[in-house]
Design goal:
This protein is of the alpha/beta class. It folds into two domains: 2-142, VC0802-like (2-Layer Sandwich); 153-352, Rossmann fold (3-Layer(aba) Sandwich). The protein is built from ten helices and 17 strands. The chain has helices at residues 13-21, 40-47, 67-71, 93-97, 116-122, 145-153, 167-174, 197-204, 216-228, 271-289; strands at 2-7, 26-29, 32-36, 53-59, 78-83, 104-105, 124-130, 135-142, 187-190, 208-213, 236-238, 252-257, 293-307, 312-314, 327-329, 334-336, 343-352. Strands 9, 10, 11, 12, 13, 14, 15, 16 and 17 form a nine-stranded mixed beta sheet that branches. Helix 9 links the parallel strand 10 and strand 11 (236-238). Helix 7 packs across helix 8. The protein is elongated and about 70 Å long. Bound molecules: S-adenosylmethionine (SAM). Residues 163-165, 191-192, 194-195, 197, 213-215, 218, 240-241, 258, 260-261, 281 line the site of S-adenosylmethionine. S-adenosylmethionine binds at residues 163-165, 191-192, 194-195, 197, 213-215, 218, 240-241, 258, 260-261, 281. One of its GO terms (molecular function) is tRNA (guanine) methyltransferase activity. This is Ribosomal RNA large subunit methyltransferase K/L-like methyltransferase domain-containing protein. One of its GO terms (biological process) is tRNA methylation.
Length: 354
């Protein structure tokens, strides 16, 4: 069965996430991918694990882009049709309504259709029409937006100024790991765990997931956040990230982390002094983590790129020829940033060589 997966817009992370988890996927258009699964249940289970997935539609067998064919599929009062082919062809919603006992048409703002909140709240039968191939797709799944909002905004300790990762980004980062270090029962650690967001996403995916942080108060807050989600506080420990091997020697399949990147309200003229210290810290970590990781273990890490108004300061250039004797770099940096941010985030995947 074929499925259209709609992903969150705004960065290239979703494309890398989909490609890593589903290597046979193809891009339908920007932020929309075609995936193949054996059943709807298998498809829903698989895409629920993604951070970037927003909603998914299934290709309807034998349904064509005509009012009569689509009207037969409508079981709820509300329906919506959106053209996904390049041309200007549209279906007249009145023609569909005339074929229904009762029907209310909801107009989508753009070619991505309605938002998951509208679809779930108003129980909408949503269709995507491809006039080029005369195929029709129907939305069958939307992401659990209530759960994502809870994790983003309603944890005991939420501090936007501390540079927390949005939970969906944390989830997508975990999904950048290749299959042999990913999944149920694998050991995942975030050595700069902050509020514990990566740890929580790891637990939800079935990893044995742990967090450490050098700050005692931050560790305490992460523990409280974990407890709020029903997980053990013991999964968090206060520890310096360059000494992770004291606790996790040869045990770790996957390290996923957004490290310390300096104070959030840093003055631009201070950037040039901050960057060498950060590079030293990251290098110390990557060396220590070699004795934490199992053979072929993986690190998915944010490397900040600062801009002081004059030039870019990259931190990923610590991955030089010497470090490449120990780690294979699996991707070029995936850039992710919030609009107007003075620091952009380059996400790099490294695999321990043996
Ligand atoms: C950018 S925040 C991480 C935020 C986290 N990704 C989240 O979503 O909440 C960086 C964290 O690194 C911690 N930190 C700074 N230096 C550290 C070190 N040497 N070892 C371990 N943690 C450190 C800070 O206490 C802070 O909580």
């Amino acid at each position: 069965m074929k499925f259209l997966l709609f992903c969150g817009a705004g960065n290239s992370l979703s494309g890398f996430e989909i490609q890593t988890r589903f290597s046979d996927s193809t891009e339908f258009k920007n932020n929309v991918y075609i995936l193949t699964f054996k059943s709807e249940d298998e498809a829903k289970k698989a895409v629920s694990q993604l951070g970037s997935a927003i909603k998914m539609a299934v290709l309807l067998d034998g349904v064509t882009c005509t009012p009569k064919s689509i009207a037969k599929q409508i079981t709820h009062k509300n329906f919506s049709t959106t053209t996904v082919s390049a041309g200007k062809e549209r279906l007249d919603s009145r023609e569909i309504k005339d074929l229904l006992a009762k029907g209310r048409f909801l107009d989508a703002q753009d070619s991505y259709g309605l938002s998951p909140i509208i679809i779930a709240k108003h129980k909408v039968d949503e269709f995507f029409l491809d006039f080029d191939t005369n195929q029709v797709w129907q939305t069958i799944w939307v992401h659990d937006f209530k759960h994502w909002i809870k994790k983003d905004r309603f944890m005991p300790f939420v501090n936007a100024k501390a540079g927390m990762l949005p939970p969906k980004i944390a989830r997508s980062m975990i999904n950048l790991a290749p299959s042999d270090s990913w999944g149920n029962g694998k050991v995942l650690v975030d050595p700069f765990c902050g509020s514990g967001r990566v740890v929580i996403e790891g637990l939800e995916l079935g990893f044995n997931s742990y967090g450490t942080d050098v700050s005692a108060s931050q560790s305490q807050e992460a523990s409280e956040n974990l407890a709020h989600m029903g997980y053990s506080k013991q999964l968090i420990e206060c520890l310096d990230s360059t000494h992770l091997s004291k606790k996790f020697k040869n045990k770790v399949d996957l390290i996923v982390t957004e490290p310390f990147m300096g104070k959030t309200n840093l003055r631009p003229d201070k950037i040039q002094y901050l960057v060498p210290g950060l590079k030293k810290l990251y290098l110390g970590c990557l060396k220590d983590w070699l004795s934490c990781l199992k053979s072929k273990g993986v690190v998915v890490m944010v490397f900040p790129v600062f801009n002081d108004g004059k030039k870019d300061y990259k931190t990923s250039d610590i991955i030089d020829d010497k470090l490449k004797l120990s780690y294979n770099q699996l991707n070029q940096g995936i850039l992710y940033s919030r609009p107007d941010a003075y620091v952009r985030r380059e996400i790099i995947v490294l695999q321990k060589i043996n």
